[in-house]
Write a structure and sequence with these properties.
Elements: H1 2-7, H2 16-29, H3 34-39, H4 41-47, H5 53-57, H6 61-67, H7 77-97, H8 101-105, E1 113-114, H9 128-139, H10 147-156, E2 160-161, H11 168-174
Parallel strand pairs: 1-2
């Protein structure tokens, strides 16, 4: 958890594959602790072909059945099936726009939002931006993309800097150059 916090969480991500990874992991995290998902991350990576959306979109039903027997991941049928469906939607979006990155980052106007929370209680579960992202993704056929999941995704992918101001990572992440 410490390594994830200190090296990954909140760092702006502009790579479609990495964005798909965070989308998948945040959907699986719904109702569970992040520690559970992080501890199973390598198994998720293997199970979902290194988060290659193109490959996951082509998973046949027998692959889904096999995943539901995989003790290394969270074996929730709705989440596994949603991941395959989301991969299809992700590929369609990418094919339409050339990349999913610009679409996803458009909800924060292409720049990481710099928050200044002093306590964990101040950090919201969702925002107007995550509300809009959720509606837009659902309209494009995505599942498990409620506003709270979208906000967790935005935090992980560095679309918002929600490190507390007393955390050394707050300023470090803030100094990362936004995408040109």
């Amino acid at each position: 958890m410490t390594a994830y916090h200190d090296e990954e969480w909140g760092v702006p991500v502009y790579d479609d594959r990495k964005l798909f990874e965070f989308m998948v992991l945040d959907a699986f995290q719904a109702g569970l602790s992040w520690a559970i998902i992080l501890n199973k991350r390598d198994a998720f990576r293997e199970a979902f072909d290194d988060f290659d959306a193109e490959r996951v979109a082509r998973f046949p039903k027998r692959r889904v059945t096999k995943l539901l027997r995989n003790p290394g991941i969270v074996r929730n049928r709705l989440k596994v099936e949603a991941t395959v469906g989301n991969a299809k939607a992700f590929v369609r979006l990418r094919d339409e726009l050339g990349s999913c990155c610009n679409f996803l980052w458009s909800f924060v106007d292409g720049r990481p939002r710099q928050n200044a929370w002093k306590t964990p209680r101040q950090v919201p579960a969702h925002t107007p931006q995550s509300d809009r992202m959720s509606v837009a993704l659902k309209a494009r056929g995505f599942k498990f993309v409620g506003s709270t999941i979208c906000y967790a995704f935005m935090q992980a992918a560095g679309m918002v800097n929600d490190h507390l101001v007393g955390c050394p990572r707050h300023e470090q992440v803030k100094q990362l150059a936004p995408r040109a």
